[in-house]
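Continuing the series of single-chain predictions for the mutant panel. This is the parent chain; the variants come on the following pages.
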Amino acid sequence: MRRTALLVSAALLTSLLPLAVARAADDPPPVPVDRFEREVPFANPPEGGLFTWGSDTGDPPTLRLSSRDDAPEGDQVLSGTYDISGYGGFTHDFAFAEPAHDWSAHRGIRLWWEGQDNGKKVALELKDGGANGEASELWTTSFTDDFTGWKQIEIPFTDFAYRTDYQPVGGIDHVLGLTQMWGYAVTLPVGAPGQFALDGVELYGRADQSLRASVLTDSAVYPVKEGGTATVKVTLATTGSAPIDEPVTVAYQTAGGSASTSDYTPLKGEFTFPAGTASGTTRTVRVHTLKDKAAAEAAETVPLKLTVTGAKAPAETPQVVIDAHGLPYLNSKLPVRKRVADLLSRMSLAERTGQMTQAERGAVGTGADITADDLGSLLSGGGSTPTPNTPAAWAKMIDSFQLRARATRFQIPLVYGVDAVHGHNNLVGATVMPHNIGIGATRDPALAQRTGAVTAAEVRATGIPWDFAPCLCVTRDERWGRSYESFGEDPALVESMETVVQGLQGARDGRDLKDDDKVLATAKHFVGDGGTAYGSSTTGTYTIDQGVTTVTRQQLEAIHLAPYRTAVDRGVGTVMPSYSSLDIVGDGRGPVKMHARADMINGVLKGKLGFDGFVISDWNGIDQIPGDYASDVRTSVNAGVDMVMAPYAYKDFHTALVAEVRAGRVSEKRIDDAVSRILTQKFKLGLFEKPYADTSGASKIGSAGHRAVARQAAAESQVLLKNSGGVLPLKKSQKVYVAGSNADDIGNQSGGWTVTWQGSSGDITPGTTILEAMRRNSAQLTYSKDASAPTAGHDVGVVVVGETPYAEGVGDVGNGNDLELSAADRAAVDKVCAAMKCAVLIVSGRPQLIGDRLGGIDALVASWLPGTEGDGVADVLYGRRAFTGRLPVTWPRSEAQLPINVGDPAYDPQFPYGWGLTTLTKVPEGGVATLTALGAAAGAAERAGADDRGRALVEKARLIVQQKAGPRMTAAVAAPFADAEHLLLTGRYGEAVRKLTQAYRAA
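Parent structure:
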């Protein structure tokens, strides 16, 4: 389904006609599209019907069919209410399985609208061409609700403008053909509650033959090497694809631009498409460039001006670009620092500040502003994808943006970024890894690195060289909606998983970044985002995300800053500040937004830690700094932010930054430092030599080899919390009863940040659900989602329950969320576990409160968010692999205990940090004497630097303790047990075994 950003109106209503509109004598009768007399159902694609959409769960409007005495057409109207903060509206898609509609005989579309006189614009969008209504070109216009009562609104098709965002890549033909129409959509006003009603959507009038022809060029930019020839294809296109009735003349001339006539052969001429010419006919114009005496030059432009008679001219004047050549920065054999210095010395202030500006791909349309504003970077936010959402479409889209950068003076390539936080999760069909919380549960740094390598390979194969990952937050409160983005609550665990940086980037010195399977990594969110206090957020209805982290300097260093020291040592290329505020006890400053903390970004990150990459802001992150926009810009840049993510306000940012520099409030030195850092990474990525996508690795996206890595990660992430009577592993011969909301839902098991920002339930991307994987391993299996099927005759039940997807503060507890299982899940657990031995799997981004049911559950598994490879879950359920996962966070008894973390003075959880039973492994025998001997051996291994032996000895001791303590978890057991896990991760093996011995004595 379409999830779009706010529509930008291309044209206003040309006529708002009162009640009745006279029909010209030669007009065909109107053709109904919707009468709303129940002939069109409420249904989602691929079925035909009406459906709603919006930017989050609260933004889709309500829809209903209402009987009205004043209905303009028939007895009923479509009406509804809305309260939209981001974007929202409704769509009528025609059924995918049926032929598209032909509207080409008509002049336009009209509808009856009940005005509320609110002065708001209502956007109307048409879906033209393509495979179906969700893969069509989008054409838009709008009208203003500045009247009361019913009015019929007529909009000629000529008023609709091509939408430059959220399109099939490059468009289908950029022509409103009208012969393959897939429906329409209405985007409703934002910012205030409202109501609406409409009726009688229909086609009217006769097609206007004189306005339906357009002249198009195959590109807006034509780069050529000096002395080469640019070939410009000029195409005739018509609405309805019919031949033209009158001739169309195109005059062309090379004029203006930065090139002189000594750089090319001036060109002037004319050609005509005669009457009867078919739509799609193409003529060619060739522009010849010349080699001059200059050995080194910046790029030069030769505009080809087209004057069209009898049709619409192209929206842009095509530009022939003579490539830059001979300049030192273009010499790949020079050291990067020399290339940076040379390029920087040539750049104007506008060009330099352009490099510091990042825009959303949905905001730049076809990309003209990339050239006009010398933009340095684009990104795709969560769910900002091409249509169709395929690897080829991604590469084509990004190449089209890179082509725009070729029209700038120094042809500095864009660096394109995306949130690939658990695989290339925006791409349908990509390998979706477990979220970080699951990776932390594996305790397998080598596997973490492999997941990063798979992600990098799939991301780079679609033309994207930059990943906004990994998140190095240390989650300290499971009420936080971003908990699953963390590897765990212990900074030592987070540090151990930072091998993912090498998986993404390769060698620490950056020499691998140019490779076709590596990307620039981003350590985020600097610093303290996982420590925000519940109730401290002031962002909308968020309760904890983007709030305030209050710590002493010692706590800051030990907990939240430690992972960044490791990331810098690992050569991470970029760092992203947090939305949150940092309040350091005793510094007298109170809470300060991280985007404004020069002491932390300039002082600690770049100074003390020696970070030499660049700092990228979060999405509109500078806007949360107190003060006006100019103040936000100078404060953040002076604090050390090198590139600002200003998705839709990129022009405002660029203009403001130039003004701040000219006013002396931001120094040229600060600008040069920022741009040098950015250019350094672009050179390391090899973008100057290879700006376009290298899709040679695209065939491996979602491949069996990549999915095997994700499958192993899913298997190793499963944490066995309880296993009374050896219920697990299951046997293939057993009759298994499966129930629960998350057993057969690929969207739920993948979580947020999957295809869209918030993720969604359902079959959203290829993969294997837990149920599907279990079917492959079971001879006899019954599935009943709500446990309504008869339970008799089964040997064991598996109930898969947990959360539905969310991301960021939308998932905060208290913001419409809690840590309790749903009523349906609780009922399924109760019914199945009362009828047979049962295992309960919790698929979630954080612990769920299960204590009141724990006694009735035989086996309990924390499955986290395993991603698309449900086979990994089945591997441990059926004993193909042993359960080896360990809790990356403390599992609380109640919400009242939160926050609860390893090392707390009062620590009495349901299951402690580091807990994790195993299967297919014989638990070592022995008691205190055995543990004492293990402690001595572990101490010796520690002193000898024998880490593998030390870890193995601690693991042996841990299994002994878990065997005894499992049924009798108390604070006296939990606290030293969790402490031992932290000691293990910090290499203090002897002390870890001594703590485990303490836990054993208390059990």
